[in-house]
Amino acid sequence: MAVEHLPASASPEEIAAILDRDACCVVDEVADPAVMDRVREELTPWFDKVPPGRDVFTGEKTQRVGGLIARSPTVRELIEQPTVLGAVSKILAQATNFQLHLTQTIAIGPGETAQSIHRDQWAFDFFPFPDTYPVQCNTIWAMTDFTEQNGATRVIPGSHRLADRLQFKHEDTEPAEMSKGSVLFYTGGLYHGGGANQSDATRVGINITYNVAWLRQEENQYLSVPLEIAKELPESLLRLMGYAQGAYALGYIDDTRDPIEAVRPELSRTREGFGEIGDLDQVQERLRREAR
């Protein structure tokens, strides 16, 4: 089954419907190529110094640069891109709220071998989540064109409905080819892996991932983003990073204070019951409505 492509005008509902069915899709040309060039320029100092991966899985000819909120103002805009957040909110709607899971650029160099096929949600200690309860929604923004030749991400559409811990071969997968500025969406249950780069150019993507707020983040945003930078960020991004309560009673500080007080005290919602989450009765009522 080939990867379905949608236009940049696609609605969050349309994207979510394909993700529910296939666990992956490409939305073409969401960002202008110049935006991708700007990210590359902002991150060049880090690409110049970061070593390649430590093993075959992380890629011995692959560079990974994280901590993108602190290092790239342009990536902050991509994290909060409205269509992306809209689609993520639909896919992860079964949870009270969601958060930023990780930010990372992945540069697959010439001669890199294919990554083993895996599920990203295995990061949660290989817990077998129900296939009807997605806990993670990922995006890969194409900083360069993604082709089968240069290592486009390999995916198995619909594999989120398959059993856990299966093994697959290259011929079981499809390349998620896309042009620069396009976005590959996929859920944490999709079997996938980075492709082999058989070209003479480096394939670069920006991996921005979101997960339900009651799970731990893969990238520790509180330590990846220095406090002096965090203090200058907008409230919406801070709360997405994790300076917010997750579900009813997760993530508060000391005397049940709003965690954003640690960075921007003036934005606190402590006296408002943490905003939209509400009190326990409200949460239980919402769950009862959804169950019906």
Can you walk me through this structure?
The protein has 292 residues and is of the alpha+beta class. It has two domains: 208 residues, q2cbj1_9rhob like domain (Jelly Rolls); 40 residues, no CATH class. 25% of the residues lie in helices and 17% in strands. The protein has a seven-stranded mixed sheet. A three-stranded antiparallel sheet has the order 7-6-9, with no helix packed on it. Strand 1, helix 1 and strand 2 form a beta-alpha-beta unit. The mean pLDDT is 93.
Task: Detail the topology: elements first, then pairings.
Elements (H helix, E strand, L loop, with lengths): L4 E2 L5 H11 L1 E4 L5 H15 L14 E5 L1 H4 L1 H7 L2 H10 L6 E11 L27 E7 L11 E2 L18 E2 L7 E5 L4 E2 L9 E10 L8 H4 L2 H4 L4 H7 L38 H12 L1
Parallel strand pairs: 1-2
Antiparallel strand pairs: 2-8, 3-4, 4-10, 5-8, 5-10, 6-7, 6-9
Helix pairs in contact: 1-5
Give me some keywords for this one.
three-stranded antiparallel β-sheet; alpha+beta; Jelly Rolls; 2 domains; 292 residues
What is the overall silhouette? globular
CATH class of the largest domain: Mainly Beta
Strands, total number? 10
Sheet having the most strands: 7 strands, mixed
Structural class: alpha+beta
Strand order of the largest sheet: 1-2-8-5-10-4-3
According to CATH, what is the topology of the largest domain? Jelly Rolls
Helical coverage, percent range? 25-40%
Whole-Å distance between the termini? Answer: 34 Å
Count of spatially separate domains? 2
Instruction: Spell out the CATH superfamily of the largest domain.
Output: q2cbj1_9rhob like domain
| Parts with pLDDT < 50 across at least 5 consecutive residues | none
Report the CATH architecture of the largest domain: Sandwich
* Separate helix tally: 9
Element order, helices and strands? EHEHEHHHEEEEEEEHHHH
Could you report the average pLDDT, rounded to the nearest whole number? 93
Radius of gyration: 19 Å
Q: Approximately what portion of the residues adopt beta-strand conformation?
A: 15-25%
